Amino acid sequence: MQQFNKSLTSAAVQDAPRNPPRTSGFPVVGSIPGVLRHQTDYLMNAWREHGDIYTLDLGLVSIVMLNHPDYAQHILRDNLSNYAKGGEMWASVREVIGDGLVTSEGNYWRRQRRMIQPHFHRQKLAGLVTLMMEAIDDGMRDWDARAASGEPFDIAKAYANITMKVIVRSMFGRALDEHDADRLGEAMSYALDYMLKNMVYGKLPKWMPAPGRNRFHAMLEQVDAYLYTLIAQRRLVKDTGDDLLNMFLHLVDDETGMPLSDKEIRDEAATIFLAGYETTSIAMTWATFMLTQHQHVTDKMATQVHDVLGNRTPVFEDLMQLQYPRMVMEETMRLYPPVFWLPRTAVEDDVIGGYAIKAGQMVAAVPLTIHRHPEFWATPDSFDPENFAPDAAKGRHPQAWMPFGAGQRLCIGKDFALMEGALILSRLMQRYIVHPVTDQQPQIALSTTLTPKDGLWVRLEKRR
Ligand code: HEM
Prior knowledge:
Blueprint: H1 6-9, H2 32-37, H3 39-50, E1 53-58, E2 61-66, H4 69-78, E3 83-84, H5 87-97, H6 106-116, H7 129-139, H8 143-149, E4 153-154, H9 155-172, H10 178-201, H11 213-237, H12 244-250, H13 262-276, H14 278-293, H15 295-309, H16 323-335, E5 342-346, E6 350-352, E7 355-357, E8 362-365, H17 367-370, H18 414-431, E9 432-436, E10 457-462
The structure holds protoporphyrin IX containing FE.
């Protein structure tokens, strides 16, 4: 790793705010070619070159990148009312998930968040552990055969399948059979994958052909058909299960006494799917990659899992004692935050770190760089779960680690994801030893999330 250029980090406080330094690129397209080639390397290098705040020039669009926890705190907490979720990217997300928690703003968002949040607290999620474990075991059903054959397989894909099952099962309980759950998952995944392209194609006139657009709309229709049918069916049976659909159906606004409409439930269900499945599977993939590179961490985790669980299926009460799998997840998401940038748009002129931010300017907090900031991490590029040992975070800047965002828009599924991650890693440790098939670091795909481009190929061995 190159030495970080510290003199630039404090370029800050000048009397009259200046414009942030700008990446140099080509005319019209700016830095797009560099970003397309190696998105995350480009962002790391630009940070080292330009410092904690700089403008990423993308031709017609530019984004002020914020690489210091203070600056992230500024847009997400201290002056959050000035930073909205506007612009093409959010418009494109809205097309898929409507006005769910991730996309809504203002009073509407506040109402939904107030109603939903209490149900995502750790204790409230206890009822989901059984459903989660069923989905995890289901997803690992063919892993023994894989271990017996010794064939390399893409564990990233397998995790995507597991986390999708976990979300579908947590959302709808056992109401969907496996075939329908997979089809809903596929339709959703297609719509989500297409979102980034939709951001670009959205600028084209409607009559112009855009590859994949028709399929995108067909998939959205399919998702709607599934979701509305499930909601209607559940309204009839008055089920009292532990799943999230049941929770949504019983929510009542304590100010107005009104329940959620079908459309609101559809949007929140689609949102939970969008927000909760790919992010967690990416985190699991990087965690597994880290385990294959750090034998002593794997050994320590396997020992803790063995001591707490032996061979039995984990239950909610075990999670308190399964601290090390959680530390591994947290440290993995420091080095590889699945959501590596959080974009916003400035509503009015502002000043960040002595630099001028104009109304309408896109800005983004960048966990990818913040998590490796040498002012806050002693060995920023090394993998060390002890960074998350009890008490280790004392005195640390609250935004030095922010894979789940910050402030009032903090991820509502944080406890859900950490719980799910600990359960998956525990099951993995109970049953398998994971061997890497190459020494190569996975390449990162061009995506809105930190996705390994070609998955993660491993070989499984059954643990005795
Ligand atoms: C490792 C897994 C996860 C990561 C890294 C992650 C990350 C994030 C981040 C960074 C945000 C803030 C986005 C912003 O401010 O622009 C967010 C918001 C959100 N996440 Fe997660 N998430 C994860 C899992 C989940 C799960 C499992 C669920 C649901 C079960 C979920 C539901 C949500 C929702 C609903 C929001 C919007 C909250 C709001 O704005 O009120 N997430 N997530």
